[in-house]
Amino acid sequence: ILAESIDYSRQAELAVRAQFVPQLIGGENVAATPVERCQRDPLQFTGDARANAQGLSLQAAAHGCSGGPAQLDLQLPWQWSGAQPLPAIDDRRDTVVRLDLREAELEPVLDYLPAVRGFSGLASGQLTARSHHGRVEAQGRLALSGGRLYAIPTGQELTDVALSLTANGNWLKLDTLYARAGRGSFEASGGIGFEDGWTPKRMQLGLVLRELPIQREGLELAWLSGSAAILTELSPAKARTAIKLHSLAVRLPSAETRNPQ
């Protein structure tokens, strides 16, 4: 990251302009195209943060990597006196987060997720989330398209990754999650419900597998087809999950194609 300018004053105002160029460290470059795009068109960051005893105001924007712009606005109210080492969130006032994505390339963010490499995709949509007295209300829709990634634990590449989310009140609906793996695919839909602020309370998920290959170090061990429903209830002390299999078929390699080892 190359910081072009940083301005700081006693009023706790911070402005940052920076360039970010992702680099692959070691190993085979399994999905070099997004990284090459970022090297030709570095990701540009701009940000403005202002803080005082009443709260934090943040505006951040990014563009580059041959993608469109992304904008994040945050209003975080807190109470901070000289006797406190850290501020305390004031839930009597609204915390507001606004996200605006316009064909933004997410590779510089997604590629740092654990157990994956070369994770790229274009994100679009707008979402506004507001928290008041410990209750979250959100509205908007976000979508990811043209995604691809390499799963390190299994040694397989997922392509045509697509994701669509719709926020309505305290419910975040997963309209669809789709990905291809070789000649197989999987699809999911469901949602997450929030209570007590930003804490997830329940999650539900429906899965459909179509000849999805199960791999280890790139070797196909089996193919799965079927569907299932998953429901999880969360509490501070524990999580309870129920799984219902509607159907499941496992296809193994033929004797002629099996690895003799």
Task: Give structural attributes.
15-stranded antiparallel β-sheet, disordered N terminus, 261 residues, globular, mainly beta
Layout of secondary structure:
Blueprint: E1 2-8, E2 13-20, H1 32-40, E3 43-52, E4 55-64, E5 67-79, E6 88-89, E7 95-105, H2 107-110, E8 116-132, E9 135-151, E10 156-169, E11 171-181, E12 184-195, E13 199-216, E14 219-234, E15 239-251
Antiparallel strand pairs: 1-2, 2-3, 3-4, 4-5, 5-6, 5-7, 7-8, 8-9, 9-10, 10-11, 11-12, 12-13, 13-14, 14-15
Can you tell me about this structure?
This protein has a 15-stranded antiparallel sheet that branches. It has 2 helices and 15 strands. The chain is 5% helix and 69% strand. The longest helix is centred in the N-terminal third of the chain and has 9 residues, at 32-40. With 261 residues, it is mainly beta.
Radius of gyration: 22 Å
SS strand fraction: over 45%
Spell out the helices and strands N to C.
EEHEEEEEHEEEEEEEE
Q: Count every helix, treating DSSP H or I runs of 4 or more residues as helices.
A: 2
Mean pLDDT: 83
Please identify the structural class as seen in this structure: mainly beta
Low-pLDDT residue intervals, each spanning 5 or more residues: 1-12, 20-33
Largest sheet at a glance?
15 strands, antiparallel
Q: Portion of residues in helices? A: under 10%
Large-scale geometry: globular
What's the number of extended β-strand segments? 15
N- and C-termini, Cα separation = 46 Å
Give a summary of the structure in a few sentences:
The chain is mainly beta and 261 residues long. Residues 1-12 and 20-33 have low confidence and may be disordered.
